[in-house]
Write a structure and sequence with these properties.
320 residues, two-stranded antiparallel sheet, 4 strands
Amino acid sequence: MVVVVLWCIRIGSPAQDSNEGDEGDALGPSLPWYAESPHWVVGQEFSAVQGAPFIGSTECLYCHPDRKAGYLKTAHARTLIADDTALEQQGCEACHGAGGAHAVLRSRGAIFAFDWQEPMYTSTICLRCHTWLTTREEWRHVPHARGGLKCTTCHDPHVPADHEQRFMLRQNEEQLCLSCHDAVGHEFSRFSSHPVQIEASLSPGPRAIHCTDCHDVHSGQGRGMLAEARVQDLCLRCHMEKGGPFRFVHMATEEGIGEGCLTCHKPHGSDSPWLGVADGRDMCITCHTDREQHNPGVTCWTAGCHSMIHGSNASPLFFK
């Protein structure tokens, strides 16, 4: 059964409506409408047209049948069966605003069309529900937001829950990241690299990691949008054996003195073994310039000498 919503509105500006007098009252509720220009002020009711009623997703999908099959299988559609969910956070209207004016006017200006919205408005709409992910204030300072990205740049809110990509992503996670960060993609193709799946057809094996294992794309700030404030804390999530505690710590691994793990390693890929910033002893001589002629021709940590290069409990010179 189709429910027909009859709702009389009169199109005009707020100023014109306030001066119409009795004639305006006879025509029905007088609502400010902004024609083909999206309008939403944070803090006002969630509607592109002030005072527009919520009509429910059934009415939306009646006119948009192409969205029905996929949308009803999404995580977003679960709000339709949640009894404790407020009307403005249910179904289609949770993202697009109250649909009453749009249903009558058949205008994209009477609904929140995401491709018309400024990036910050789009993200604000998403963060009405996804408060656990980040806050509006935090997102404003994230490099992705400052670069003009929208939530919908990476996510498709209409894809079903059984879609091959997790988190409603538009592509494989690594392909999506590398579509912008193409220079990083070249680093993953070098001789030594972290096992990241840069192409869908190439499997990096069971130890594969994702970009988001190291980067927080929604709230990570500073250089690299890292998921931890300190680089070594991030690396030690996987490489716990390198973290000690040691009685004698290699100072280069301490941030503030060196650059933590990045003093010696490139995080994405390198032409040197073990993600090194240089080959063999050249990496050590970058800091230890006075040892350039010390046992030339051998690698410092494989010649039987400084084998405990990350730290030692026995020797300040990192002998075994």
